[in-house]
Design a protein that fits this description.
alpha+beta, Beta Polymerase, domain 2, Methane Monooxygenase Hydroxylase, Chain G, domain 1, two-stranded antiparallel sheet, 9 strands, 63% helix, 15% strand, rod-shaped
């Protein structure tokens, strides 16, 4: 069970790294002014049993975490919360979004992050957990832990959206480029990006409901008769509202991207139809040009005896000249109509 992060954060603002989980368990039992943040990956069943017994995690939440492949969600079990977050990184070269999966168990003085997917590289998710740990300082409520986690994940969604937007701009440039475009390749690229956006939307959309639920819980549990507690609740709600504003921005930009790419797909289909129409015009024009001399040749190839032109000394060059003249006239007509 690799331990990625194991820190003890005290209410006076100080923070220390805990060497072992046993040391973390002991600190939480001995002191009331400390919060623990533990980030681990690939825990075994025995590891999960130990974490459950020390932190009091709900069995249903532990079962979901053990199975993995969860959607982004928030579940509440008494005084503990179970969150599933889907951090993401954008691979610009492959034009793919790689999603991670982090399960957060949050209690009154702890937050345990269980990494189910490494975001392509272990260093990526470790950097995310360290960023969360750096924000969890001088904590007084468990809401600050959740805010730090959600804020870090949502902030990392912005580079993903920017990468998608850059690819969308490249597609638009390719569609209206004066140079010949591989329309089939553009269609495949648009369709692939739409699939990536759909997956991204499934990771981002639940955050809005999760944040609303958390703000409702903060308001419900706040002691309105205590001015300090009331002020603290207002501060927490403002923090989550700021994260929600970022999440709304992300979702709006995703919707705009999806609409833009769908329009691009329609435009590409129109361009393909226009190209096919132009090709059919050229084929029809050349067919008409070639059919004129064919008709003339077929008439004089019927071998009837009473055909005056057959006995005319200039009949052969005259028929050739007629073929050339008719073909030239048709060519000029089609050229003027931009069929050639």
């Amino acid at each position: 069970m690799p331990i990625l992060v194991n820190t003890l954060n005290y209410h006076d603002g100080s923070s220390t790294e805990s060497k072992t989980l046993d040391e973390t368990y002991a600190a939480l039992k001995e002191r009331d002014d400390v919060n623990a943040f533990v980030g681990i990956s690939d825990p075994t069943n025995d590891d999960m049993h130990a974490l459950t017994s020390h932190f009091g995690m709900n069995e249903l939440a532990v079962e979901d975490s053990t199975e993995g492949h969860q959607r982004a969600k928030l579940d509440r079990y008494g005084h503990t919360y179970f969150l599933v977050l889907r951090p993401a990184v954008y691979l610009d070269k492959e034009e793919e979004i790689h999603f991670g999966e982090i399960h957060l168990f949050m209690g009154e003085n702890f937050m345990v992050a269980i990494v189910k997917d490494y975001l392509r590289k272990e260093s990526n998710v470790k950097a995310l957990l360290e960023d969360i740990a750096s924000k969890i300082e001088n904590l007084k409520t468990p809401w600050d832990m959740v805010h730090a986690a959600l804020d870090s994940v949502v902030d990392r969604y912005f580079p993903v959206v920017e990468g998608l937007e850059n690819d969308s701009d490249e597609i638009e440039d390719a569609l209206f480029s004066p140079m010949p475009t591989d329309t089939a390749g553009v269609s495949q690229r648009i369709y692939a990006l739409l699939n990536e956006i759909a997956d991204f939307k499934r990771a981002c959309k639940p955050l809005l409901g999760m944040l609303d639920t958390l703000m409702e819980r903060i308001r419900a549990t706040a002691d309105t008769d205590n001015p300090e507690d009331k002020q603290e609740a207002i501060h927490d709600v403002r923090q989550f509202r700021d994260v929600k504003d970022h999440a709304i921005q992300i979702n709006d930009r995703i919707d705009d991207l999806r609409s833009t790419l769908q329009n691009a797909l329609e435009v590409n289909s129109i361009l393909v139809a226009e190209q096919q129409n132009d090709d059919m015009k050229r084929i029809s024009a050349w067919a008409a040009i070639l059919v004129a001399p064919t008709i003339i040749g077929s008439i004089y190839g019927m071998n009837f005896e009473n055909m005056p032109e057959l006995q005319w000394p200039w009949g052969y060059p005259a028929s050739l000249l007629l073929m050339v003249a008719v073909s030239t006239i048709l060519y000029l007509v089609f050229k003027r109509k931009n069929w050639m």
